[in-house]
């Protein structure tokens, strides 16, 4: 067998495998969307769920998912940004940085259920936060830190070294060069990573079952006290998210129209994650074009 024929066979095998993977994923997505889209309506997206009656919605769970995502990113992004800047711009090659990178790798490989059990033992029980938004956000911070830190580090390292030399040549200090030159140049990559990690957090369930709780109490939208358990922005209230709600429906079986609600909620979750992913690509490309044309 000559080299050209072997190359064509290998290329064909790779294209076939890639096509099968795409076909499987596309079939799965279409199956979920075809089953769920007919059940989605404005009432379904805004009404609260009902445990033993038909006609419930996912309004509170959807709000909880977005609010928990917001709190998690507020906590995790500054830490990840600082860690990424240190590793990319200041860290020297020694055992400390090797230990940090090893810890990041270990954290990124932990199953989410392990992170959830850790959050349950530490934040729910030891710190006494109970099943709450805060416990869930802190647990998801440990889940999110490795991905975000590595993304920030790689985005900063992708900036050409001439950008650093130009900043230093203009009389800027090292920190000013990082803050005013390197970070703005790396913004498209960082923002893409933030949006992608947001989609990952939005669809997380296992870690939140043990930390944020499995109930969605009614919210008082006239009360905006972050320490109130009835406030929409209350940090210490239980907050069943959309992914946890889907898991709960399919395990408890107490909802008469559970299959319809589960299908609709799954479709909403898939659409939200797809929006996060496509938005990350679109925003990253647009920012990159603006920076290169400026």
From TrEMBL:
Please list the residue ranges annotated as the ABC transmembrane type-1 domain.
Answer: 62-280
Q: Where is the signal peptide?
A: none
**Pfam assignment, any one:** BPD_transp_1
The record's principal subcellular location, in a coarse class, is membrane
Compartments it resides in: Cell membrane
Q: Does the keyword Amino-acid biosynthesis apply?
A: no
Cross-referenced InterPro entries: MetI-like (IPR000515), MetI-like_sf (IPR035906), Phosphate_PstA (IPR005672)
What membrane topology does the annotation report for this chain? Multi-pass membrane protein
Is Cell membrane among the key words of this record? yes
Q: Report TM segments.
A: 12-34, 66-88, 109-142, 260-280
Which UniProt keywords are given for this protein, alphabetically ordered? Cell membrane, Membrane, Transmembrane, Transmembrane helix, Transport
Superkingdom of the organism of origin: Bacteria
Q: Which PANTHER family match?
A: ABC TRANSPORTER PERMEASE PROTEIN YQGI-RELATED (PTHR43470:SF4), PHOSPHATE TRANSPORT SYSTEM PERMEASE PROTEIN PSTA-RELATED (PTHR43470)
The UniProt similarity line reads: Belongs to the binding-protein-dependent transport system permease family. CysTW subfamily.
Protein name per UniProt: Phosphate transport system permease protein PstA
Q: Which organism is it from?
A: Enterococcus eurekensis
